[in-house]
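Hi R.,

Here's the chain you asked about this morning:
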Amino acid sequence: MIKFLGIYFACLASLVVTRQAVATTTASERLLQGLPPVVASEIGILLTTIGALDLELVKYETPITLRFTNYFTIVFWNCIAVYDDTFLAADTNLRPTVASNDASTFTSENRAICASQAAVTYSAFSMPGAVEGTIAANADIDIHLEAELDPDVAACDASDPKSTSFISCLQDVAAAGSYNPILIGQIVAFQAYLLSLEDGWNQLGTAKPNGLTCTYQCRNYTDPTGYAPINSPYDKSSFIGASSDRWQPLLEDNDKGFFYYQEHVTPHIGATAAFRYLPESDRASRTAPPPKYTPSRVKEMRSVLLRMAALDDVKKMQVEAFDNKVLIANAVFGAFVGKVLTDVYQDSVLGKEGLILSYERLVHFVAGYIAAEYDSVIIAWKEKVAYDLIRPTSTIKRWKGGTKDITTWAQFNGVQSFKSADFEAYKRVMPHSEYVSGTSCLFESVKEYVDGYLATIDLDPTNFPVTVGPYAPGSSNVEPGLTPAAELTLTYPTIAAMADEGSESRLDGGMHFGAAIPGGKLLCSGIADYTIDGIFALLGQ
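And the predicted structure, written out as tokens:
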């Protein structure tokens, strides 16, 4: 899938550059026809940077990936706001504290180069594995970024990132450097990183349970709330229902002889992480209804086995595709580009003369999309920990102490009969509890965000085709060499169709019981309304 992401973005970047080249080489003809060029060339810079970041992002657990993408899109937008006299910063909803006062620097090129540099600088602090690749990818298009923080920026006293003295120091450095985008990108990222340390995720692992503080050898994203699973991972006894229906860590391995049991990823964020646009009051008031599972889970387990027995190549590749939120976000971004071009959108707010799609419009859409996902994952994690329910894999493996005869999907072998102790979901079951489905929650917000955003800019949301793929024969990560049997492309006529299939794929893959999907949708419905209000407020109008 990592290789696929690289190919996907290389193709999308090539498409943008090719369309722009066509527009440029036939400019006189297009003028005679009254047709504008297609897209801003700076979008090629953006896609190059995103493509390089994605190769590292997919290595992290979903909540951490979404946190990183949240900050990347914040700095992307802030690099636009810095080179403008009206737009607000995405992390403070105020005017940037460091901004250019030279209108001649307010160019899309400066904004795009600033964004790429900000991505490298933020990565250096938080996701260092992306630094080298992002620099190299930009060098290939003649954008030369810096791995190290500028000495003058580093010399500013950052002990209080909100202090007047720190901000004044950064503004002086920016002015002395004539607001060049490499320097501004570093400043934007440095400020965003410092503020991110106060967002409740415990990035540096300094907060510990019972109010204690870690000073050395701290583990990033440590849970400071003291969550612990009720069900021992070593309990293989028969599942007996309500007395043992709490989340149970699953056994994993690295295919090299190392076995380990899961720890619940970031159980604290539902209680401690700051929202982007969702009101703080929703942390208590926004809840999912209790799932009406049978105490024995027998009905639910049988449903899981039947759905997995019905897996075909399309369903298998959907399970794999929708497991990768980075890939799906890219597909939606591509669909947005296609929508704007197909409808020949007349952008009166973020448009540029002679263009159908501006760099600024694409960044604005992307920033809101990620913000909606970010708030959704926080609220979903709150409910996951509150209900703390067991996964199908655990209950099926313990069905009659693992001796139950079952018939369902078996890797590389279609549908087979075997003992329940040997059951596995189609795809890796993530290290967090079962209810609600984080995927259905996120996709509900994504669906409502895309529809709402398009309606806000007067585009028809009912025609928004999304394409994922193509997948070459045998390109499956789960059944390599076997699945799919022939080249396969996943296509959805609308964002709603994509979101629904994505949510249902969690049931097809055996990762959830049925109630987790509607529960997640209900929980996250309406989050996008706040996102749309917030993202358009950044325009300062």
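The radius of gyration is 24 Å.

Let me know if you need anything else.
M.
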